Amino acid sequence: MKILIINNHTKHLPELTEALAGFDLEVRMYRPGLDFSCADKDLIVLSGGGGEGLEIDDEHQAGKLWYEDEMRFVRGCQKPIIGICMGFEVISRAYGAKVAKLSRGVDQLFVEFNTTPDGAEILGNKTLNQFEAHDYCVKEAPKDFKVLAKSRTGIEIIKHSTRLIFATQFHPEKGGTLTLGQLVNAL
Q1: What is the C-alpha separation between 28 and 127, in angstroms, rounded?
Q2: Across the chain, where does the E strand assignment appear?
Q3: Distance from the CA of 38 to the CA of which of 77, 80, 158, 164 falls in 20 to 30 A?
Q4: Distance CA 49, CA 75 (A)
């Protein structure tokens, strides 16, 4: 399987590439205006962010968000996509959800939360214990997405109802009940 990782300036890139060991990986650092050529790829992974402090609301130039080009790519891409943390926020915003800043971020710890009935059916787990590190959250599902899990801070996993798009607010590449490999296989 050929996978394009769009690196949203994550500090977890070593764990991400290790979690996808055995696949043919290409890593491209995101920047506005990047050509997202993916015709020869089987899967796109949008990484977490924050490694360089570029958040979902940051502007690239007046009136243009830093991740605006990636949001446009997500809406038009016909390949399977997995979004992680910042990738989750990009996908959520691309499909009309509000992404809100938490009053106090969740900083690098394992958190236990429950799946929804849809999540238990798709993922086979009712309780998840996952690594969290984020300052933003999504409280309401993006258009055309099912919510598969929620925590006290917001939505944790979404799946598009007709397209092969999964996204997690947490970091499955850091381990936990649900691994990145399981998400790849769930597509």
Answers
A1: 33
A2: 2-7, 24-29, 43-46, 59-61, 64-65, 81-84, 99-115, 127-138, 145-151, 154-160, 165-168
A3: 158
A4: 20
Give the residue among 110, 80, 90 at the shortest CA–CA distance from 32: 90
What are the 10-residue block averages of pLDDT along the chain, 187 residues in total?
A: 95 94 95 88 94 79 90 94 96 94 77 92 87 87 96 93 95 90 82
Compute the distance between CA of residue 66 and CA of residue 56 in angstroms, rounded to an integer: 7
CB of 27 closer than 8 Å to CB of 5:
yes
Tokens matching residue 44 = 């796109």
Structural domain count, the chain = 1
Q: Are 129 and 176 in contact (CB under 8 A)?
A: yes
Contact by Cβ (8 Å): 14, 5: no
Structural domain boundaries enclosing 92: 2-186
Q: 10 Å Cβ neighbour count for 179?
A: 15
Catalytic residues: 85, 171, 173
> What is the CATH number for 44?
3.40.50.880
Model-level pTM? 0.94
What type of residue sits at position 15? Answer: E
Neighbouring C-beta atoms of residue 107, cutoff 10 Å: 9
* Look-up of token digits 């971020």: 105
Q: Which residues, at least 6 apart from 122, have a Cβ–Cβ distance to it below 8 Å?
A: 148, 159, 186
Residue 11, classed as helix, strand or coil, is coil
